[in-house]
Amino acid sequence: MNRLTGLVVRFYPRWWRQRYGAELQALMEDSGETWWDVLDLAKGAFAMRVSTVGNVDWVRGAAVGGFVSMGVWALVFFTMPTRFTSISTITIQSSEEATPSPPAAVALGAFNDNNLSSLVEKHGLYSSDRGRGTGVLRRFREDIAVTLMAPDAEARSGQVPDAPTPEPFRDQGRLQISFSYPDGPKSQAVALELARLVIEENLHQPPMARYRVTGVPDHVAADSNATMALGWALGAGALAALGVAVLRGPAVLPPVSK
Amino acid sequence: MNDPTLLVLTSLADGDKHGYAMMADILEFAGVELGPGTLYGAITRLEARGLIKGLSSPDRRRPYRLTAAGRAHLEEQIAALEPIVRNGARRLRRA
């Protein structure tokens, strides 16, 4: 039984797992596991919980909540402007002897006014905001986020800071540079260019303050936040449908005639 | 006709079977592929109603047997379905 199936089986009541868990495991080993089996087990666990509780009020609540949530997310989907977020990832490493600058400081140096202005011109960004002086660059910086994914620490993320954080980064980690923009291909292209700027800025650091870039920028994908809202709407709809399916399904057998 | 409890009772009508054997048998005689959650949901309900019983087994593949009450219930359900099947077939022939 794989980990996901094991997790789903844990949603069954304990008495049920003690009684049927071992033979269900044997059945799964004999028949093989598919995604449909996992979904079927999830539905079965839900139904078993309902029939065990003997009270369907909370199932009704889940179904109603699912429908309401689906409506809200669908509204978000249809009203929010579509923006695409592309993430470019660089693998970095610092040696034992080096005292590298904090990654945020490197990013701060890379995303200076000159570099960002060049990108605005090259890709025709924020055309509706042109002529407003520094407003374009401020908006540009608001749409950039730098996240350090360190193996020994929680991810530290945020927009490009006004001042670098004091902590340098040691060991190996991934620096993610994301850019959100209404145009998907442009968001991808700019995310890659931002990563290139960070790499170049890193090379301009003194040798002992430099990171070793052990991986080139990759995994640039444009994901729309409107698409994410649609995903939430579909998930909520699935919850609602599951609740309705359990409420309408045969929870118990018809009475046995004597 | 796709009631999983009825399919399980029918599967056990010709002998004891464990879960996987029931799945395979139901797929063969009814063309219905029961998922593991659906199958064990039906088994749980049928056992709770005393219509089937689990037998002791040396390994994890516990076989199940139709009880007398289960056999009577299955006969009753089939008897209730027979006029529907008979009339449905006759009306289709006429149409």
Range of helix content of chain A:
40-55%
Instruction: Please count the beta strands of chain B (DSSP E, at least 2 residues each).
Output: 2
CATH superfamily of chain B: Winged helix-like DNA-binding domain superfamily/Winged helix DNA-binding domain
| Quaternary structure annotation | heterodimer
Largest interface: A-B, 28 and 27 residues
Main beta sheet strand tally, sense and closure of chain A: 6 strands, antiparallel
The helix-strand sequence of chain B is HHHEEH
Mean pLDDT of chain A: 75
Q: What is the global morphology of chain B?
A: elongated
The total beta strand count of chain A reads 6
The CATH architecture of the largest domain in chain A is: 2-Layer Sandwich
What gyration radius of chain A follows from the Cα positions, in whole Å? 26 Å
CATH class of chain B: Mainly Alpha
Order of adjacent strands in the largest pleated sheet of chain B: 1-2
Euclidean distance between termini CA atoms of chain B: 23 Å
CATH architecture designation of chain B: Orthogonal Bundle
Beta-strand portion of chain B reads 5-15%
Strand content of chain A: 15-25%
CATH class of the largest domain in chain A: Alpha Beta
Structural description of this entry:
The complex is a heterodimer of chains A (258) and B (95). Helices cover 53% and strands 16% of the residues of chain A. Chain A has helices at residues 3-9, 14-31, 35-53, 57-79, 103-110, 113-123, 135-142, 184-203, 225-248; strands at residues 84-94, 144-149, 156-159, 171-181, 212-218, 222-224. In chain A, strands 1, 2, 3, 4, 5 and 6 form a six-stranded antiparallel β-sheet that branches. In chain A, helix 5 (103-110) crosses helix 8 (184-203). Chain B has one domain (4-94): Arc Repressor Mutant, subunit A (Orthogonal Bundle). Chain B has a two-stranded antiparallel ribbon. In chain B, helix 1 (4-12) packs across helix 2 (19-30) and helix 1 crosses helix 3 (36-48). Chain B starts with a helix and ends with a helix. The mean pLDDT of chain B is 92. Chains A and B meet through helix 2 and helix 3 of A and helix 2, helix 3 and helix 4 of B.
